[in-house]
Amino acid sequence: MMNPSPEKPDSPSSFFIWSAMISVYMVWGSTYLAIRFAVQTMPPFLMAGVRFLIAGSVLYLVRRAMGDPRPSWKEWRSASVIGIFLLVGGNGGVVWAEQWVASGVAALLVGTAPLWMILIDMLHPDGRRPNRWAILGVGLGFIGIVILIDPFQSVSSKENIDPAGAGVLVLASLLWSIGSLYSRQAKLPPSPLLGTGMEMLAGGLGLLLLGIMTGELGRVSLLSISRSSWLGWLYLVVFGSWIGFTAYTWLLRSAPTPLVSTYAYVNPIVAVLLGYFLAEEILTFRILVAALMVVGSVALISITHQRSLSSKRRRNMGE
Length: 319
Prior knowledge:
- The structure is a single chain.
- The chain is mainly α.
- The protein has one domain.
- The chain has 12 helices and no strands.
- Helix 1 (14-38) crosses helix 11 (263-279) and helix 3 (73-97) packs across helix 8 (192-213).
- It is globular, with a radius of gyration of 20 Å.
């Protein structure tokens, strides 16, 4: 937790940092349930595409009006690649799968992104080699995935998770990880919010095209969209895309990285609990065990990574 410093009078207070953290915990954890309500009567790809086009347009125009310079072609290219991987591949997989998979289960499977990032980084020629604790975390997480999906269908049909939906969610998590790793070295605008708006525009356009290609235009009927779907979609635009992203990008610059990274293993817990209490999603002992293993693995990887970075900084300072 960052405390105000006499040398830095403009440092944010603990109150503002924790207010932003709680908003990220609750908003991003609740978007899975909002998606479930939205896709009940809305075509998933078109729903997500319009959401990101609107949210991205507002972010982009506001930042340009506030003086951010016009992005270069290279910045647009990088933002487009990130938007395709994160929003079309990642979020697109989530909105499609949540037509059949409970929101809490979807959050748990998407929450495995750090496991994929470790594996991808490990396989890359210039990637970092994980230590034994990170490897243990990866193994624990994938065992949790197997228990959650239950590919051998060893439980009653009531507890079964749609295999196609689960597979798409795992793929979505992988694509999100690839996009996240690419974004580390990508050429992007100095303004995080401008870059986020560009990524949303690219991803939203990609989702819109995907919806058209899959025939979703023929399924659109504004009169048949339920009130809960409209509210879910509006929540995704306002809270998920604007408030959640704004709080997160502010935290990246204002709060300690280890604290900010805790959202990765808090969000799935929030999603599971909201799904159970607000949408009567099934919550069995098997799902609880799998959730503890997945969340625990992500927490172990995150803590190990931060300790590794701290040790490296101390060694560099001593040289």
